[in-house]
């Protein structure tokens, strides 16, 4: 059987056994989707290409260290690595992602909007960096079904239609879970007294 017909997990197994061609097939299979996800968040092709390369270096390192255990879920795992590298980039650039509840029912919904911090003093910069970390932590406290919706929509850049198909639910159910996720995030924000309006 040609390698291009093998599933991801089999390709990973062959690659770890020393078959470099297996990883090439894996890369060709997923590179467009992973790159689009990175570029969509950065809107800068050169930087997106750098982070894309870094993503696959990290993927290779993790595989060779034997730390990959996401059986059958290579693409979501790779997307999370890319997303974390994008977040790292924003941190280094003094920019961060903030909660934004606009258009939860819209397919162009984005729970994060990027804010520039060029004119902020050090104290404000530290506060925003802490807030970003807290927001990411708050998402982890959501019910699993709601957390999965946010991770698929934001971190994996899937449409609500794709999420509905992946979860085997209706689009309305996916939208409903996102809505409740936002409601719960608002409650968590109020409970922890986080300030998200930093204009």
Give the helix/strand layout.
Blueprint: H1 8-16, H2 20-42, H3 45-64, H4 74-92, E1 96-99, E2 112-115, H5 122-139, H6 144-155, H7 160-167, H8 171-191
Antiparallel strand pairs: 1-2
Could you write a compact summary of the structure shown?
The chain has 199 residues and is mostly helical. It is built from eight helices and two strands.
> How many helical elements?
8
Distance between the termini: 58 Å
Number of strands: 2
List SSEs in N-to-C order: HHHHEEHHHH
| CATH structural architecture of the largest domain | Orthogonal Bundle
Average pLDDT, all residues: 75
CATH names the topology of the largest domain as: Arc Repressor Mutant, subunit A
Backbone CA Rg: 18 Å
Proportion of residues in helical segments: 55-70%
Kindly provide the name of the CATH class of the largest domain: Mainly Alpha
Principal-axes geometry comes out as: globular
- By CATH, the superfamily of the largest domain comes out as Winged helix-like DNA-binding domain superfamily/Winged helix DNA-binding domain
Low-confidence stretches: 95-126
| Count of distinct structural domains | 2
Main beta-sheet strand count, sense and barrel state: 2 strands, antiparallel
Structural class: mainly alpha
The strand order across the widest sheet is 1-2
Q: Estimate what percentage of residues fall within beta strands.
A: under 5%
């Amino acid at each position: 059987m040609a390698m291009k017909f093998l599933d991801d997990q089999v390709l990973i197994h062959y690659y770890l056994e020393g078959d470099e061609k297996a990883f090439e097939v894996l890369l060709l299979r997923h590179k467009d989707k992973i790159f689009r996800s990175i570029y969509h968040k950065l809107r800068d092709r050169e930087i997106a290409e750098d982070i894309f390369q870094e993503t696959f270096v990290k993927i290779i390192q993790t595989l060779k260290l034997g730390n990959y255990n996401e059986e059958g879920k290579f693409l979501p795992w790779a997307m999370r690595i890319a997303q974390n590298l994008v977040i790292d980039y924003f941190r280094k650039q003094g920019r961060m992602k903030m909660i934004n509840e606009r258009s939860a029912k819209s397919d162009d919904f984005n729970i994060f909007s990027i804010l520039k911090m060029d004119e902020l003093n050090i104290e404000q910069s530290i506060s925003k960096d802490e807030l970003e970390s807290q927001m990411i932590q708050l998402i982890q406290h959501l019910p699993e079904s709601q957390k999965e919706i946010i991770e698929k929509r934001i971190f994996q850049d899937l449409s609500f239609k794709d999420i509905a198909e992946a979860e085997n639910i209706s689009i309305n159910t996916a939208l409903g879970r996102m809505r409740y996720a936002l409601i719960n995030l608002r409650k968590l924000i109020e409970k922890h007294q986080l300030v998200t309006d930093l204009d």
